[in-house]
Amino acid sequence: MMRQFDGDRLIIASHNAGKIREIGALLEPFGIAVSSVAELGYEEPEETEDTFAGNARIKAHAAAQASGLPALADDSGLMVDALNGQPGVYTADWAETGNGRDFMMAMTKVNDLVAASGASAPHSAQFRCTLCLAWPDGHDELFEGIVGGHLVWPIRGEGGFGFDPMFLPEGEQETFGEMDPAHKHAMSHRADAFAKLVAGCFDR
Ligand SMILES: O=c1nc[nH]c2c1ncn2[C@H]1C[C@H](O)[C@@H](COP(=O)(O)OP(=O)(O)OP(=O)(O)O)O1
Ligand SMILES: [Mg+2]
């Protein structure tokens, strides 16, 4: 039996401004007041697991414990077939420079490795997202989302965040970096996971 969300306040357990913006937009129709762990000044827990679900649970439970409120975390990443699913759970790590994140550098690295792999274009890839909704009593629910597509080079568009300008979703003309945000929110890996969360927990 799935736990229903019946509160009117939720913590977004993310420090990523792009994700916070997207999750806030997805939650908006439900009239739930949201604050993020970034604006509350909570520390980022270490993401020590090697699965999206494991890291989503770490982030959601840390925020639910700290706030005493239900918390929603997102762990996500880009899986490239020619790289056997890399960078995957380590997508954010690939952008780490020691002085903040550099996604131009990370996208260049992915493109170089794909070229070196000898695989022929188009280079298929998927974005994956696991959402974890955790309650302060330690209970949680997990929801997984995916969107398939392929990589483009050179990158296209200035919108979105992270690897968006490098990813062309299946059947689309625009990369996530070129797309209107509302269109991305209707078809992304995050939207897919969110639809399952709504069906499972917001069905009230
Ligand atoms: O829609 C997306 N469009 C483009 N790139 C994306 C997307 N979704 C995840 N990504 C990439 C970038 C992100 O940095 C990494 C996830 O890493 P991940 O640890 O889950 O998130 P994060 O460290 O950026 O924020 P936080 O852990 O505080 O939620 O995958
Ligand atoms: Mg993270």
Automatic annotation (TrEMBL):
Keyword Metal-binding: yes
Listed cofactors: Mg(2+)
Family matches, as Pfam families: Ham1p_like
Binding site for Mg(2+): E46, D75
Gene Ontology BP, a term: nucleotide metabolic process
Cofactor note: Binds 1 Mg(2+) ion per subunit.
MF-aspect GO terms: dITP diphosphatase activity; ITP diphosphatase activity; metal ion binding; nucleotide binding; ribonucleoside triphosphate phosphatase activity; XTP diphosphatase activity
GO cellular component: cytosol
Annotated EC: 3.6.1.66
Keywords recorded for this protein, A-Z: Hydrolase, Magnesium, Metal-binding, Nucleotide metabolism, Nucleotide-binding
Enzymatic class: hydrolase
Binding-site positions, substrate: S14, H15, N16, A17, G18, K19, S76, F161, G162, F163, D164, K184, H189, R190
Role, per record: Pyrophosphatase that catalyzes the hydrolysis of nucleoside triphosphates to their monophosphate derivatives, with a high preference for the non-canonical purine nucleotides XTP (xanthosine triphosphate), dITP (deoxyinosine triphosphate) and ITP. Seems to function as a house-cleaning enzyme that removes non-canonical purine nucleotides from the nucleotide pool, thus preventing their incorporation into DNA/RNA and avoiding chromosomal lesions.
Family: Belongs to the HAM1 NTPase family.
Assembly information from the UniProt record: Homodimer.
Full protein name: dITP/XTP pyrophosphatase
